[in-house]
Request: fold
Amino acid sequence: MRFLHTADWHLGRKLGGQSLLSEQRTALEQLLGHVRDQRPDALLLSGDVYDRAVPPPDAVALLDEVLSTLHSQGVPVVIIAGNHDGAERLSFLRDPLRHQQVHVTGWPGTDSPPVILRDEHGEVHIHSVPFADPVVARWRLQQDDLSSFEEAMEACLAPIRAARSPGVRHVLLAHAHVAGATATPGAERRLSASGNETVNAGAFDGFDYVALGHLHAPQEVGGHTHIRYPGSLYKYCFDEDHDKGVLLVEMDGAGGCRIETLPLRGARDVRRVEAEFDELLAFPEEFGQMDDFLSVTLRDRTHVRDAIYRLREKYPNVLEVQYLELDSPRISGSSARDARVHTPLELFESFYQEVHGQMLTFEDRVVLEDLLDDAARREQEVNL
Ligand SMILES: [Mn+2]
Reply:
């Protein structure tokens, strides 16, 4: 039995205000290429399919295209919702789709039998536990005593364990932060304000393969080769400096797994560059592919006026500029040149720089973009 395991597509994600949809499309075309080459028995997609509960239309269209291609190739797909997905929307038409070999579970506690696949050694049962924080788990499972992510996971797994057929192999899809796994700063949204968001790997005893989603760095958990995060589809922040891929899992008749990573690469990389401003403009060929998404750290000791806009003439996708160390963080006042900035984001950045003498951090920028997106959407809704 052979699976491809992937997660954290985050379709519709933006990076520094730029849509990543064409990068996501490129990565998904590669993934479909692996499907064609490997002819797996199923594709497992472990949550955060979309970046938002209400995804943009072009993200929905891209998913539609990918699922239609998989369906036309006769590859069953098993999908669970992650913390970024809207459970109800993602599992739209789940019942009829199931008969088309597209198995989507949005809510935890949904009464659904495992997806059953067969090979020459017998059956493999694929179980689904979508993302569940304690509040959602209390509501969906009608259990008032669930107060931690650990208890929520246990409550979701209990009926699965109880109904698990003996003598067959079992696979589990789950979207969770498993204790002992490594998060990437700035990559994953925190699941809980209190910080206690992990579940124990011991919860997964008895499953022959655990297809996890949530953490963006590919990794096995706690030395268990069969408990795996495949990592995200694409680099979604500058700290995600790991190679991306999809996992090919070959399961033998006893449930033993041999796992291989098949690479996924967008057309552009997401990376950091450190140099002096003049070097960057004079010798662009020394700094790699010019249309990569860049975070630039300038070694200049004094502030370079309009640095980001001037750099963008050579490197169109510079998303942030910061300084290694400035002699004086103060910058001079605004000028007529500022009239060139026009988007609300750019205006705010310019204002922020004026007031604080430094650029917005990347994380601040992401928050601001979300706020501006929400405001724009609300405005649109009011206009409708
Ligand atoms: Mn997640």
Remarks:
- The chain has two domains: 2-264, 270-379.
